[in-house]
Amino acid sequence: MKSWIKWLLVAGSAVLAGASPGLAQTADAYPQRPIRVIVPSGPGGGYDVTARLVTRALSAQLKQPFVVENKVGAAGTIGAAQVAKSTPDGYTLMWTGNSPLTLAPFLNNDAGYDPLEAFMPISTGVISSYAIMVASGSPINSIKDLVARGKEKSKPLTYASNGQNSSLHLLGLLLSTETGMDTLHVPYKGGAEGVTAVMSGQVDFTFDASSTAAPFVKSGKLKALAVTGKAREPSMPQVPTFQELDMPSMTFEAFYGLLAPAGTPQSIIDQLATAMKTVVADPEVMESITLSGNNPRSSTPDEFKARIAREAAAWKAIMKAQNIHPNS
Questions:
Q1: Per the confidence metrics, is the pTM higher than 0.85?
Q2: Which of 67, 108, 118, 138 could be joined to 84 by an S-S link, Cβ 3.0–4.6 Å?
Q3: 5 within some domain
Q4: Where do the DSSP E strands lie in 63-176?
Q5: Does 33 or 103 have the greater pLDDT score?
């Protein structure tokens, strides 16, 4: 090879290597330092519990710490917006679920991101359902009891959620509309705070992930009236589905998964997706996820992207039917 051609090739390689950390990054070189995982919800809720289970296994798999960081507020959009604006180098990721990806940003003109464009889905890790819960000492023992109470004219039933325009908020609103109950929404910063409010008697009921509900139901601190999944939850087999109660419009799945900011190198996305598939299939991880009240399920990036788009379209249809408009 002529010396000047060799010089051009060497020089070109050096330019590409130094042009951008993202361009220079390869799957073989990643990761080389700790990875921050933003969870846009408070500690103790479904997002947080599942994030810590999965990231602990990812740390062992990829030989670098995965550091979970909770960012609460605005139904998850504050944390999600931070991730959307982060450097797409694979060192800031997000573990989240339905609300920040399929609902809240379409109800808030100031969310700061488009969930269908701002992120690169990597893999789901957990599929679950939502449970509707009341305090253990509540006189309400079934959905029938709840609806009857909600139709009394004395005062509305109060229900907690993890924020205005969250999936938990909309589930309560949808149930109220479908049954004709009179309810009052009480938003909190996170789902765990809403559950605490129900246990203490500050509010009458709440929806939350079945994984959050199961330990409280088993310990007798809460009563679960129904779950939104297509089948009963293995962690609460005594609790009926809304479908069984002839309320198919209340059938929804909760999901949690890992995402990266848009523009992250595809090699990093692929490596993380492979790692997710490995850890979610690990027997110990599967057992931990199952014991938390969830169902372990990984996916390809394309499958996760399709789920987000499909569920966003479904929630948009519900919002239109309910005459709910974005706020600013």
A1: no
A2: 118
A3: no
A4: 66-70, 92-97, 119-135, 157-161
A5: 33
